[in-house]
Amino acid sequence: MTVSRREMLKMVAGGSAVAALGQMGLSGALAADTGGFRAMVGVFLFGGNDAWNMVVPNDGRYADYAKQRGSGIALAQSSLVPLTGTAFGLHGAMAALKPAWDDGGLSVVLNTGTLFAPLTKALYTSRPDLRPLNLMSHEDQQNQWQSMRVRTFNYNDGFMGRINDRAQAASLPPLISIAGSNLCLIGDRTAPLILPASGSIVRNGYNVAATDAATKARQATLDAFADASSYGAITDLTGKGMSSAYAQAVEANTVISSATSAVDKYFVHPTTGAALTSDISRQLLRAARMIEARSTLGHAKQTFFVSQGGYDTHTNELASHNNLYGDLANALAGFYNAMKALGLQDNVTAFTMSDFGRVFKGNASGGTDHAWGSNHLVIGGALANGKVHGRYPDMTFGGPEDTSNDGRWIPSIATEEYVGAIAQWYGVSATDLPYIFPNWANWNGGGRGPVPLFG
User: Fold this and answer.
1) Structural domains in the chain, sorted by start
2) How far apart are CA 376 and CA 40, in angstroms?
3) CB 271: neighbour CB atoms within 10 A?
4) Please, what is the average pLDDT of the chain?
5) What is the pTM of this model?
6) CA–CA separation, 204 vs 212, rounded Å?
7) Residue 28 CB-density burial (10 A; 0-12 exposed, 13-18 middle, 19+ buried)
8) CA 307 from chain center: how many Å?
9) Closest CA to 100 of 271, 285, 349, 278
10) Dist. CA 282–CA 81, nearest whole Å
11) What is the pLDDT of residues 253-267, one digit of tens each?
12) Is the C-alpha dihedral spanning 38, 44, 45, 48 positive or negative?
């Protein structure tokens, strides 16, 4: 049986060796950087974020919001953090992001989700062939957000991986996950460097100073495997990939394990000054350190994937959100302040993604069930100041934007229009956009196109 290089990558996906294998054989024909350093940081909120409580109307529509959500889910209007100059407020636990908003470094994108084509309720009802497959399924909607393919179950690769297929190669991959192996990261010719959220990268059982016979024999075997050309192409490729991955681990460790860094001091609680310890804050701190070391690493551009779980809030949502949103906002605020300290706030953009939104009407358990459209946050100094993009849905149950009778809103902005705007800012060329976003033709023309996030 002949095993292709791509199949080989899939077999070893999830370990650091995949990064080395993914970089092998890349030609010098990859597009060189021409626009200065840029970094994009995707923050995936796993479980389906009920962002109807993350961004809330703070004007006359609040009364309808409170009535339709119900007393078990609706937030008190007095608890909202006003987004000055707009008709909206953030969840009270996200107060740490208010300075970023006032600074022009935070934007909101309303009612965004997976779409195959522009969709009205009439089309949703009469044309099931225009709907994304398996709506409201965690796995499928996560895959569709990450692959940008909504009418196929053939999820081969993800948009971040495809972006980096067109990027300038480096000895240490500029596509970096601090949230494990995810579809979003797989490209045709590239794969990510996967870093732990804490601690360093280690080779279990490896000790160069070992004197016992068993350990020395094992290490000698690994050293011999580093040059396995006499054992065939696949074995040689694997050996070289492992050796390269080990070298990459050493290089990455110098950054993530350094005792000092200019960015660490910004990852503190805005009130108490205590160091942030949540998983999302540790991930974003690692991303900030890798950005700080961009020149040493030879990275003209960097792409990061980080995540936060816990958003499948079928019960006790209000308490869950207080914790989740507090951790998320503090981490994002620390990250934004770190980028400002590095003078890179205009060069780095972070943005949220999630499986789907939640049903607008609360359930009997103080939670919400799976739905579709949702709201998202974008953080960075290059944004058009103080913008809420898109349109808040008509809150009528069973109305023109509800696929049911309890508030499962049809998105008005497609994932391609949302993430595509960030990809353009990042430097993806017009000719490469259809490769990054396979359904780009449906969202580029006819009055549709990238959200005007940047100004």
Assistant:
1) 31-199+263-443 (3.40.720)
2) 15
3) 9
4) 89
5) 0.89
6) 16
7) exposed
8) 7
9) 349
10) 25
11) 889 888 889 999 999
12) positive
The answer to whether the beta carbons of residues 31 and 168 sit under 8 Å apart is: yes
Q: Which residues of 329-338 are buried (b: 16+ CB within 10 A; e: fewer)?
A: bbbbbbbbbb
3-state helix/strand/coil string of the chain: CCCCHHHHHHHHCCCCHHHHHHHCCCCCCCCCCCCCCEEEEEEEECCCCCCCCCEEECCCCHHHHHHHHCCCCCCCHHHCEECCCCCEEECHHHHHHHHHHHCCCEEEEEEEECCCCCCCHHHHHHCHHHCCCCCCCHHHHHHHHHHCCCCCCCCCCCHHHHHHHCCCCCCCCCEEECCCCCHHHCCCCCCCEECCCCCCCCCCCCCCCCCCHHHHHHHHHHHHHCCCHHHCHHHHHHHHHHHHHHHHHHHHHHHHCCCCCCCHHHCECCCCCCECCCHHHHHHHHHHHHHHCHHHHCCCEEEEEEEECCCCCCCCHHHHHHHHHHHHHHHHHHHHHHHHHCCCCCCEEEEEEECCCECCCCCCCCCCCECCCEEEEEECCCECCCCEECCCCCCCCCCCCECCCCCCECCCEEHHHHHHHHHHHHCCCCCCHHHHCCCHHHHCECCECCCCCEC
Say how many Å lie between the first and final Cα of the chain, rounded: 53
Q: What is the predicted pLDDT for the residue at 209? A: 77
Of 148-162, 207-221, 433-447, which range is least confident? Answer: 207-221
User: Of the candidates 192, 250, 242, 247, which has an alpha carbon nearest to the alpha carbon of residue 221?
Assistant: 242
- Residue-wise pLDDT for 344-365, tens only, equals 999 999 999 999 999 999 999 9
Picking from 350, 285, 280, the residue whose alpha carbon sits closest to that of residue 105 is 350
Given a contact cutoff of 8 angstroms between Cβ atoms, the answer to whether 404 and 378 are in contact is no
